[in-house]
Amino acid sequence: MRVVIGAPNNGTILKDELKDFLSRDERVSEVVDISTPDITYPDVSFQAAQTIVDGGAERAVLVCGTGVGTAIAANKVPGVRAATAHDLVTVLGAVENYDAQILCMGQNVIAPVYARSLLKLWLDLKHDPSSSYGAKVREIDEYESRS
After folding, report:
1. Angle value at C-alpha 89, between 145 and 64, nearest 5 degrees
2. Residues 31-47 pLDDT 10s
3. Is this structure's pTM higher than 0.85?
4. Which residue among 61, 64, 74, 83 is the active-site one?
5. In whole angstroms, what is the distance from residue 77 CA to residue 75 CA?
6. DSSP 38
7. Phi first, then psi: what are they for 82, rounded to 5°?
8. Pairing assessment for the beta strands 59-64 and 2-6 based on DSSP bridges
9. Alpha-carbon distance 83 to 74, whole Å?
10. Mean pLDDT, range 39-63, rounded to an integer
């Protein structure tokens, strides 16, 4: 699996730890860091989301102060579902229920050791389009395509 990762300055410390973790995980074929010293959270979010839409990566991890700004910005890119998650239940639901391709976390909210444990789970999760949530995700996709 190819994973894009990125963060503005207020997410760099956690982003670097997660990048190192993903780089060593055998389930990840490549980690592409799109961060730059002057990148803003909207820009890094738009770039990561567009990479997903264009097929350049299967998943992305975005880190900012809370994880909320990156999720809001990434979700502005049609075809992307980004979720902020700092606990197991939300990470599970983000992928299994809602087919979120982007996981957003906050450097000011979660300890690196716990963030790594969430990524460990996240890498194996899959969305089942035939589940009860599959129809709801399709409803969202249909609405988005009309806009």
Report:
1. 70
2. 999 999 999 999 999 99
3. yes
4. 64
5. 5
6. T
7. -115, 140
8. parallel
9. 9
10. 98
Helix (H) / strand (E) containing 104 = strand 102-106
Dihedrals phi, psi of 107, to nearest 5 degrees: -60, -30
Query: 3-class DSSP state for residue 60?
Result: strand
Residue 106's SS3 state is strand
Residue 40 sits at φ, ψ, to 5 deg, of -95, 160
Cα–Cα nearest to 69, from 87, 96, 44: 44
* pLDDT for the residue 147: 76
- Cβ distance 53 to 144 under 8 Å? no
Average pLDDT, rounded, for the chain: 96
- Whether 64 is catalytic is yes
Return the number of other C-beta atoms located less than 10 Å from residue 32's C-beta.
Answer: 15
Surface-to-core class of residue 103, CB atoms within 10 Å of its CB (0-12 exposed, 13-18 middle, 19+ buried): buried
Asked if residue 82 has pLDDT above 90, the reply is: yes
> What is the chain's length?
147
Q: What is the mean pLDDT of residues 129-137?
A: 90
pLDDT band at 21 (very low <50, low <70, confident <90, very high): very high
